């Protein structure tokens, strides 16, 4: 991952931005109980993004587990921002880096349906930003998954139990943790 421009966020006096980034990149998978402050953290970042990129973004929504009331989650706000095309997403990368995000060119090169960026503070991830084609397949799937969990507390509880099991199994491998949730996510989407 590379960081450009001013520091993404305030750091503790003893930690440089580079040290914070290195710790955030290698942060363990740890779930915490739902925090009612998460929607406010999303709203603040949404307003910041729209204040800078309103002409390019066709929608900015809260996704992921922090968007489901009551669901334990990694304390990272997942944001999905809609764009007209991945070419628009690619054009936004440099301005987003200047706005305090960081990213991995290698990771993004492997993505065919989105672009990914992250914000961090004091060695912890704070936000993940997913740039996707507005109202495209991925956009609709992620909203459907979120909305299904919001509407079905029993299903959300099953997901919480799975996430806890997977976080214990893959505490140092975020990619393995995410891949292991795939079957559950596909089964939920098949119902919608």
From TrEMBL:
Pfam families: GrpB
InterPro entries linked: GrpB/CoaE, NT_sf
Residues in the signal sequence: none
Protein name listed in UniProt: GrpB family protein
Protein species of origin: Bisbaumannia pacifica
């Amino acid at each position: 991952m590379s960081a450009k421009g001013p520091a993404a966020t305030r750091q503790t006096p003893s930690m440089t931005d580079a040290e914070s980034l290195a710790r955030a990149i290698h942060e363990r998978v740890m779930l915490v109980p739902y925090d009612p402050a998460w929607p406010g953290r999303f709203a603040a970042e949404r307003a910041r993004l729209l204040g800078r990129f309103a002409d390019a973004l066709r929608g900015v929504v809260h996704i992921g587990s922090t968007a489901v009331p009551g669901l334990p989650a990694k304390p990272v706000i997942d944001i999905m921002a809609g764009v007209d095309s991945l070419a628009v997403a690619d054009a936004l990368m440099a301005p987003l880096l200047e706005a305090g995000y960081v990213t991995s060119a290698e990771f993004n090169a492997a993505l065919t349906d989105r672009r990914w960026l992250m914000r961090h503070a004091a060695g912890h991830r704070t936000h993940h930003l997913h740039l996707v084609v507005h109202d495209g397949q991925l956009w609709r799937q992620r909203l459907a998954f979120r909305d299904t969990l919001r509407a079905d507390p029993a299903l959300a509880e099953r997901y919480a139990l799975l996430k806890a099991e997977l976080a214990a199994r893959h505490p140092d491998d975020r990619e393995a943790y995410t891949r292991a949730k795939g079957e559950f996510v596909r089964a939920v989407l098949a119902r919608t």
